[in-house]
Amino acid sequence: MNLTAQRLRALRKREGLSQTEVARILGITRTAYNKYESGASAPSRKLRELAQLYHVSTDYILGEEDALAEKLREADARTPRCPLQLSYAVLTNRVFC
């Protein structure tokens, strides 16, 4: 099971919804939604609706948010503390102090 599928299952359970309920909200069949959670199909057309339903970003569902957060943490650990330029330095891996 891929990360997107794992996240969709965890988010649905967190909200206390069944696959049938989510499918009904999205206007698709339960079988179609089950394919999202099993990783057999990507929720590309319903991604925005899923993010709104679960109150998360599309990047979180796709696993991109964690990758960015990890990159920022790694860069932050290597960056000296310069108050005004820290964020820019973290994002660009440049140090201005």
Which key terms come to mind for this protein?
97 residues; 67% helix; 0% strand; 7 helices; mainly alpha
Structural account:
This protein is mainly α and 97 residues long. It has seven helices and no strands. α2 (19-26) packs across α3 and α6 (64-78) crosses α7. The protein is elongated. The model has no long low-confidence stretch (mean pLDDT 82).
Topology (SSEs and partners):
Blueprint: H1 3-15, H2 19-26, H3 30-38, H4 47-54, H5 58-62, H6 64-78, H7 86-92
Bin the strand percentage.
under 5%
What's the overall average pLDDT, rounded? 82
What is the overall number of helices? 7
Taken from the alpha-carbon principal axes, the silhouette is elongated
Give a short overview:
The protein has 97 residues and is mostly helical. 67% of the residues lie in helices and 0% in strands.
